[in-house]
Amino acid sequence: MGFKSKARKARGESGKSEGQKRRRKELGDGEKPCCIKGCDKWADKSHGGRSIAFDNLADVWDEDDLVGEGRRLAICKPCYRHYKKEKKEDESQTW
Ligand SMILES: [Zn+2]
Q1: Where are the domains of the chain?
Q2: C-alpha of residue 89 to centroid of ligand 1, in Å
Q3: 77 C-alpha to center of ligand 1: Å?
Q4: Model-level pTM?
């Protein structure tokens, strides 16, 4: 419950912020940490995180670098961007 209302609040406040809070913590703490080893960012949806199937992640990172359980793991936004980039390059190599 608290999760959703938090995201809504952040949206409604656009235009009101003056940039003085534009630091790392602008979104507050998340609930889901990124599953990539060594990454300490949040993978919550409100933080731009995504959940990706383990198999797909294993194409980009070593399995040893994936921390988490289950078929899908949550990754943060920067990691997702990296993932997407790697995947794209992968696809463009078909010939
Ligand atoms: Zn990450």
Answers
A1: 30-95
A2: 20
A3: 7
A4: 0.65
Give 60's contacts (C-beta < 8 A, 6+ positions apart).
Answer: 82, 83, 86, 87
Cα separation, 73 vs 57, in Å, equals 8
Cα–Cα dist 8/36, whole Å: 27
Q: What are φ and ψ of residue 60, in 5° steps?
A: -105, -40
- Rounded to the nearest 5 degrees, what angle is found at the Cα of 57, between the Cα atoms of 11 and 69? 85
- Residue 87: CB atoms within 10 A of its CB come to 14
Query: CB under 8 Å to 76, separation ≥6 — which residues?
Result: 34, 36, 39, 41, 42, 43, 47, 48, 49
Residues 20-65: tens digit of each pLDDT:
544 555 678 889 999 999 999 999 999 999 999 999 999 999 999 9
